[in-house]
Design brief:
93 residues, 6% strand, globular
Length: 93
């Protein structure tokens, strides 16, 4: 009985890690050259006076927020928690 609980917990953790790792890879691939990564899980325009870069950063951050919300709902944590974890991974932490 205890072995089944441990196995279920391990499998659930493996699924979360797999989903989160896939999301991190997806986030990295979506970043164009006119934005830079911030360690809070979001991006900012490389040049704040470039309206195209600002628009690109806003679009990416909106998509990330939606993805973070999905993960947060599944895990029962805040969007900020998910964004922070992703930011640490993307910044090498």
């Amino acid at each position: 009985m205890m072995t089944q609980k441990i196995l279920k917990a391990f499998l659930a953790l493996a699924v979360v890690i797999t989903c989160f790792t896939g999301m991190t890879t997806e986030v990295k691939a979506a970043k164009p050259a006119n934005v830079v990564e911030k360690c809070d899980g979001f991006v900012k325009p490389r040049n704040p006076s470039d309206s195209g870069a600002v628009s690109t950063a806003n679009n990416i951050n909106s998509q990330r927020r939606q993805k973070y919300q999905q993960i947060a709902s599944k895990e029962g944590v805040s969007v900020q928690d998910v964004a922070s974890r992703t930011g640490r991974r993307l910044c090498g932490g």
